[in-house]
Design a protein that fits this description.
Elements: E1 5-11, H1 15-27, E2 30-36, H2 40-49, E3 54-55, H3 59-63, E4 68-71, H4 78-85, E5 94-97, H5 103-109, E6 118-119, E7 122-124, E8 145-148, H6 156-168, E9 172-175, H7 178-210, H8 213-216, H9 220-228, H10 233-242, H11 244-267, H12 270-289
Parallel strand pairs: 1-2, 1-4, 2-3, 4-5, 5-6, 8-9
Antiparallel strand pairs: 7-8
Helix pairs in contact: 7-9, 7-11
The structure holds NADP nicotinamide-adenine-dinucleotide phosphate.
């Protein structure tokens, strides 16, 4: 794989940025990767584990002369970062991000992008419940989708280079409209996370009644909810604050379906329940056929934390 950019700056050094760095190194995609995180502690960890070719102590230093700057901070922090770095960006550079919500990021970051700098937002559909600089690994994006979500009239060359970088990191790339992105993600990621948080919260209330039984006898279904509900609180707070409309729309539909199933249970409508579960089983089959999960016990997940 040939080099896509001379210099890339990763801003925020958590799960996504560290995975990007290791995937960039694996593919030999970039000449030099600089990195910046707001806390001294994260910068020290990055230096200790060799995360980034050069860890900078200021945001301005990290983005100076970079051909691509990728914002890898929580969605709610992006505006402040964009404002602070605007004056240090190289003319002709591209600014991108990896935020889980796109319309809000475009509105927050877009106005701070100077004339002559390209803005090409993106979102890799890959993650784990772990966070921080030591949680990343080169294979995170392999065979997963990364969506490029341009705003306005994007520069074709800037989009092509960003696509080449994500493909070089192992991802499949699609281009999507921001509002469509936010609705699709509300269905596939944001609302399921909210439901997992809720279910684990309910079980936690119950635990007070049944002592430690909820943990002791936790079966696969609940265990999987707890894995999702262990995801980073800051990131997910920001997702719900910034993808409000789409999430509320899908939650409304979810509540209607839940009431229908509740009624079927109350009235003993076994046919409805059986038909419903048959339909949903088909969706799982579709995900396996698309190569987006493996049909192994425990969903093929290692029991060892990554
Ligand atoms: P993470 O592991 O928690 O790392 C976040 C990084 O952002 C840290 O370096 C942190 O710095 C920095 N940061 C946090 N708050 C900040 C603030 N107010 N100002 C400046 N820097 C700040 O997060 P992540 O999972 O990599 O997520 C990063 C982005 O990727 C988010 O926008 C998220 O929506 C998106 N995303 C996440 C996933 C996922 O599954 N995790 C998947 C796709 C996209 P310190 O360490 O110094 O505190």
């Amino acid at each position: 794989m040939s080099q896509v950019y001379g210099r890339v700056a990763l801003i925020g050094l958590g799960l996504i940025a560290s995975s990007m760095f290791w995937a960039i190194k694996r593919g030999g995609l970039v000449g030099e990767v600089t990195g910046y995180a707001r806390s001294e502690e994260t910068r020290a960890t990055a230096r200790r584990i060799g995360l980034c070719d050069r860890v900078c102590d200021t945001l301005e230093d990290a983005v100076k002369d970079a051909d691509l700057v990728v914002l890898c901070v929580p969605v709610g922090a992006m505006e402040a970062v964009a404002r602070q770095m605007a004056g240090s960006l190289k003319p002709g550079a591209t600014v991108s991000d990896v935020g889980s919500v796109k319309r809000a990021v475009i509105e927050a970051v877009g106005p701070h992008i100077p004339e002559g700098v390209h803005f090409v937002p993106a979102h890799p559909l890959a993650g784990t419940e772990h966070s921080g600089p030591e949680s990343g690994f080169a294979e995170l994006f392999d065979n997963r989708w990364s969506l490029i979500v341009p705003s306005g009239d994007p520069d074709a060359g800037a989009v092509a280079d960003l696509r080449a970088l994500w493909e070089g990191m192992g991802a499949n790339v699609d281009v999507m409209d921001p509002d469509h992105h936010d609705l699709v993600l509300a269905v596939t990621s944001h609302t399921p996370h909210l439901i997992a948080y809720t279910m684990v919260g309910v079980a936690d209330d119950l635990r007070r009644v049944t002592d430690s039984e909820v943990i002791k006898y936790s079966a696969a279904g609940f265990r999987d909810f707890t894995r999702i509900a262990a995801s980073d609180p800051t990131m997910w707070r920001d997702v719900f604050l910034t993808n409000k409309d789409a999430t509320l729309e899908i939650l409304g539909r979810f509540t209607e379906e839940l009431f229908a199933l509740q009624r079927a249970i109350r009235t003993g409508d076994g046919d409805l329940l059986h038909d419903y579960f048959t339909r949903t089983r088909g969706i799982r089959r579709g995900i396996l056929d698309a190569g987006q999960d493996v049909d192994a016990p425990n969903f093929g997940r290692s029991t060892k934390a990554k």
